[in-house]
DNA sequence: AGATCTTGCGCCCTCTGCTGGATTTAA
DNA sequence: ATTAAATCCAGCAGAGGGCGCAAGATCT
């Protein structure tokens, strides 16, 4: 809907609706509407960049490109302001893209799955998850990656020296990645409404790290205490055996005579002594070291 | 008509942070 | 030896910066 007070402008505007392109590039045969556009186009072939930036050594084909560059790099003027937050941009298209992060609109649909992106690049990058393409290679170990950023972090962590570390403010844990420190804080240093009980005593905690530290203080104690007598031991399995002296339970039966034992070891000794025909009893024992022999010659 | 702004689309880049499987460590 | 939890790590998406290029609009 073009409106103008002058008939000449209207005529000129009407020309934009015709597809007349009389000016042709002799290098690539592309056609253009005006000589100026053609000239700019040829400059892209020849590398001629007449518009130099005053503040750095960049140069551009059009004055508009230079103006935009100066906003980005030097004046930092950002005319496009977001009405919902503090964001401002140099270009209208950037504001438009930004607005989608408020609205959640995702106009760019992947044609292979349900993913949709807020801009075209997201979908393009996403397509690598379908193609399996991994364009970025580590120059040291030649491992390949789907994104450059992932490759860079790999090179830093695996092959770099004086790698940055993330120190936990609450304990001496150090992680290589910031997001892993976040996970650590969440799992170990977050207040839990539910009480967490010590495995060995009645102490109660609301922070996992405190619980674990506390449980370590039990480490060299005989943590397993018999309910029926004063016996205590460091290992759970020892207590299991001990408890049978109170219950009288004898889980191990001899297959030959059906005699029962509290401990497997006791059964083994029994079998060897009474039912193993190849077993030779110790007859001659050395008085100095206690070692036993079946024959006098060996002794 | 030509020159010069202004718009608009496109391409590619970086930084950032979450996730879940693999590996290591401790009980 | 087994197992549970912690840490490592690559995959992958969100958000935004910067430039290339040509068409549209306006000025001279």
UniProtKB/TrEMBL annotation:
GO terms for cellular component: nucleus
Read off the SMART domains from this record: ZnF_C2H2 (SM00355)
Q: Per its UniProt record, what PROSITE patterns does this chain match?
A: ZINC_FINGER_C2H2_1, ZINC_FINGER_C2H2_2
The keyword NADP belongs to this UniProt entry's keyword annotation: no
InterPro entries under this entry?
Znf-C2H2_CTCF (IPR056438), Znf_C2H2_sf (IPR036236), Znf_C2H2_type (IPR013087)
* Molecular function GO labels: DNA-binding transcription activator activity, RNA polymerase II-specific; RNA polymerase II cis-regulatory region sequence-specific DNA binding; zinc ion binding
Q: Which residues form a coiled coil?
A: none
Enumerate the Pfam families for this protein. Answer: zf-C2H2, zf-C2H2_16
Q: Does the record's keyword annotation contain Zinc?
A: yes
Q: Where in the cell is it found?
A: Nucleus
Q: Which residues form the C2H2-type domain?
A: 23-50, 51-79, 80-107, 108-135, 136-164, 166-194, 196-223, 224-251, 252-275
Give the keywords, sorted.
Activator, DNA-binding, Metal-binding, Nucleus, Repeat, Repressor, Transcription, Transcription regulation, Zinc, Zinc-finger
What family classification does the UniProt entry report for this protein?
Belongs to the krueppel C2H2-type zinc-finger protein family.
| Listed name of the protein | CCCTC-binding factor
Q: List the source organism.
A: Phocoena sinus
Per the UniProt record, the lineage of the source organism begins with:
Eukaryota, Metazoa, Chordata, Craniata, Vertebrata
